[in-house]
Structures are given as structure tokens and as C-alpha cells.
TrEMBL record:
Belongs to the PTH family. The keyword RNA-binding applies. The record marks 12 as: Discriminates between blocked and unblocked aminoacyl-tRNA. Its EC number is 3.1.1.29. It comes from Arthrobacter liuii. Monomer. PANTHER family: PEPTIDYL-TRNA HYDROLASE. It is found in: Cytoplasm. This is Peptidyl-tRNA hydrolase.
Length: 201
């Protein structure tokens, strides 16, 4: 049983995409890299990779930002998992999620991909959906805006003021997931359900 985790931040390569909502997973990995105090290096698996420990005595992690486009994230993820000997249940995908509000972070194991092509490609490459996901809420597109157009745009002005807090929360969620387990991390980061509110969809 490995004690190493592969944390993958999803996004598209290139400066023109760096501020997009679709790249929020890679922004979270930059936050985690800052906490480790190290930089990414290019790996032969077509990814930017950083090896280290999260926190003093914390779990050993491989942080990875695929250098492929989002829709073909699976190849680099599978290659890295094989290279480092990391099973699927120790893979964590950090990604944008339109089905939850901006400024919200949720965690889950397995399940559907919700139309997220990056996740779909990872599931195919790993031959399983049973890997962990840290879902970073970006909200739904306004009006009739196409979903692809929405996620490939930068965060709005008001969102950008809140973005550092969202990235901090998402990085905390990754640390909690690895340190405390999925259930405890969900209890910490998922909004409490009140009897007066309608159930979450």
C-alpha cells in the first residue's frame, strides 16, 4: 500500500488559458506548491510535476499539472500513476465544477463526470471512476451562454477578489482529504444542510 498521493490539477496549457475558470484546478496546485515551497519541473509524462510533503510529517505527494489539453488529461495522469506506482484510489483530481456555486468546494469519490471531458478521459485512462475529486465551484453560465465559452473565460472582476480565498479553501480541502479522510473532509467543507432549506441537488 503506497503512502504517496498523486494530486492532479486540471486545465489547459498556455498563457492564454491560465486565468480561465477551466484552469482553477491548476491554480489550486500552484497554491499547494507554495505551501510546500518548491517549484514544478517538466516530467516525461507530459506534465509539470512537484514531489514533496504537505505539512510537517504530512503525506508524500506528487503534484501534477498535465501539459496536454483538458480533454486528453488521462494520458499524463495514467503515465504518472504508473511511473510512481500510485493506485487509482490515491489519485485526486482537482477541477472546475459548474454544478456547484462559485466559492464552494466539494469532495467525492467516484461517480459520474457530469459532462466534464477532462474527468471522462481520466476515468477511461485509469479504467475506473473510483478516484477522488476535489470539485471547485465556478457556478453556472449566465443566461444562454454556452458552457464551453463560460469555462474558457477568466473569472469576473468580483470573482477575482474572492478567488484567493477559494483557492486557499480548495488547497485546505486537499490537505484535509489526505490527512483526515474523505468523510471528515466532506463534513468540514460541505455546507451544512438546514431543515428549513430545500435539499441540495
Amino acid at each position: 500500500m503506497t503512502d504517496t498521493w498523486l494530486i492532479v490539477g486540471l486545465g489547459n496549457p498556455g498563457a492564454q488559458y491560465q486565468g480561465n475558470r477551466h484552469n482553477v484546478g491548476q491554480m489550486v496546485l500552484d497554491e499547494l506548491a507554495g505551501r510546500i515551497g518548491a517549484g514544478f519541473k517538466t516530467h516525461k509524462a507530459r506534465a509539470q510535476v512537484l514531489e514533496g510533503r504537505l505539512g510537517i510529517g504530512g503525506p508524500r505527494v506528487v503534484l501534477a499539472k498535465p501539459m496536454s489539453y483538458m480533454n486528453v488529461s488521462g494520458g499524463p495522469v495514467s503515465s504518472l500513476a504508473n511511473f510512481f506506482g500510485i493506485p487509482a484510489d490515491h489519485v485526486v483530481a482537482v477541477h472546475d465544477e459548474i454544478d456547484i456555486p462559485f466559492n464552494t468546494v466539494k469532495l467525492k469519490l467516484g461517480g459520474g463526470e457530469g459532462g466534464h471531458n477532462g474527468l471522462r478521459d481520466i476515468s477511461k485512462a485509469l479504467s475506473t471512476k473510483d478516484y477522488l475529486r476535489v470539485r471547485v465551484g465556478v457556478g453556472r453560465p449566465p443566461g444562454r451562454m454556452d458552457t464551453a465559452d463560460y469555462v474558457l473565460r477568466d473569472f469576473g472582476t468580483a470573482e477575482q477578489k474572492e478567488l484567493p480565498f477559494l483557492l486557499d479553501d480548495a488547497a485546505d480541502a486537499v490537505e484535509s482529504l489526505l490527512r483526515d479522510g474523505l468523510t471528515a473532509a466532506q463534513q468540514r467543507f460541505h455546507p451544512a444542510k438546514s431543515g428549513s432549506n430545500p435539499p441540495e441537488s
